[in-house]
């Protein structure tokens, strides 16, 4: 079967003498593993089109354990993302995050579109709000949006007093619930407000919010911890399911 899709390579690995295995986030097939078979002639032709973090028109053949790349044509190189080491590092950070977060062959076109927007923004601006906004939108798209408007426990609207953030349950807990249950760590109300703004506005508006740089970093740190917790939990439950099915 021949499959045509837009895709972005997020990981690339040499395989055997001359082959390359790619992890590709695609528009209509989700995250897939594909192999670029390496006769020198083919790789010489395809090579430049298989760099990570370019928007590429792919044609795959269905193989036994991997898709096989039969054609790859770059649509957007994102030149600055590749020439500026800082931007490259930020692309790798998000690429790794998506690789860990997404299951193979589970289709999330909205995640792909967000990733394209992320790379476009990184190419043209690279504001410190970019990673937090992208992280928030990914969480929302994958069903992990944290609660930032009302208390996770009692569902009361959050008041501008000392509130608490709970990574495990995902969101904010009010003062009296914190006193009752002891969950969560202190969170600055301005951070909660910024999170609320990011979740109520779309990607493009959120990346243009006028926010102090320090707050952008703090919001990023909250989301990063939260995401790491989710990935860890998912890995554990996958391991658990595997153990059950192996027994
Ligand atoms: Zn409460």
Automatic annotation (TrEMBL):
InterPro entries: ARFGAP/RecO, DNA_rep/recomb_RecO_N, NA-bd_OB-fold, RecO, RecO_C. One of its GO terms (biological process) is DNA recombination. GO terms for cellular component: bacterial nucleoid. Residues 1-74 form the DNA replication/recombination mediator RecO N-terminal domain. Pfam families: RecO_C, RecO_N. The keyword Nucleotide-binding does not apply. The keyword DNA repair applies. NCBIfam families: reco (TIGR00613). Involved in DNA repair and RecF pathway recombination. HAMAP family: RecO. Belongs to the RecO family. This is DNA repair protein RecO. It comes from Candidatus Berkelbacteria bacterium CG1_02_42_45.
